[in-house]
Amino acid sequence: MSSVVLGMPGRRRTGADAGPASGEPRPDDTRLLDRFGRVATDLRVSLTDRCNLRCSYCMPEEGLDWIADERLLSDDEIVRLITIAVEHLGVEEVRFTGGEPLLRKGLEKIVGATTALRTHDGRVPQTALTTNGLGLERRATRLAEAGLHRINVSLDSLDRARFARITKRDRLPDVLTGLAAAATAGLTPVKVNTVLLRGVNDDEAVPLLAWALEHGYELRFIEQMPLDPQGAWDRDSMVTAEEILAALRTRFRLVSSAPGSRGAAPAETWVVEDAPAGAPARAGDRLPRVGIVASVTRPFCGDCDRTRLTADGQVRNCLFARGETDLRAALRNGGSDEEIAATWRGTMWAKEAGHGIDDPSFLQPSRPMSAIGG
Ligand code: SAM
User: Which residue has its alpha carbon closest to ligand 1 atom 21?
Assistant: First the structure.
């Protein structure tokens, strides 16, 4: 087993450096600062906790107790919170996720309202969508027209029977058509997210990359995290980034694309030097790449720039946070934009140094990934 890199934040000199133990008050700064000098500029918005797949590592076959309709934020409430995040709190990038965000009828409207906003320096906020791709064929063009910039489609197997076993639905052809539609609509580079599970699909690293290169998609492997509702995750049996790299290197020549300069990006990326000539990924000046999001074995908490909003209006300062702050109540009780912004700032100020997966006292969050927003 490889050693674990903690990836914890050092103290930074940003003017916000009160330090976790100092007890100093939060500095007067409008951005989403935390006690370690990190600044959150990337908002992940979960649009629903429901999903039309049942990926074994994410949701039980029978589904979950869905959030009641009256607790879900309306489209207008979501747009108001995104507006506060962009206009009052310095958020620059918004990713829509879930559950399955394509299940949300108002998705295009929410994307359009987000891209109509302007960041503190006058730019259009970057927008992205993480989806399982079901129904994307019908909506990719409309999403692009609403201003969506990028898309990640999740796909764990190219084998139809295996895909059906992992997701409990025989929908591989729909995902592949959705991917093609996203590329045609110009939502490029189209990224594909894959979770490898030992003994299930861990023999597919090489075929998946070969397929992605052939189609011009950018593949990202995600280490499995302890976010399954069954609580069955096991550190010793998860497929690690190191193993994935070793498997890929049996077939491809990989060169780290930016050693040591990943910044806040979750994926470490490698250029695939021997990608087939003429592969669509070579179009333009973009080199064919593969990424690995090693949240468990190479955590990047020290560079984390995320803040999360759940479909029922709770702000979380970390995917693994044990607590959350209720913005829905503030909204529905008539809170002003500035009052809601102040509450949000307070939540982020309390962010922990790291997610703590490798701490013996680690407790899985009470909500699974599908309810938090992946
Ligand atoms: N339904 C959408 C989808 O399939 O992409 C968005 C939500 S899903 C929770 C977002 C991403 O989280 C997917 O790529 C999925 O594979 C990943 N995911 C879910 N549970 C995970 C886990 N326990 N560890 C790592 N990734 C996980």
Answer: 58
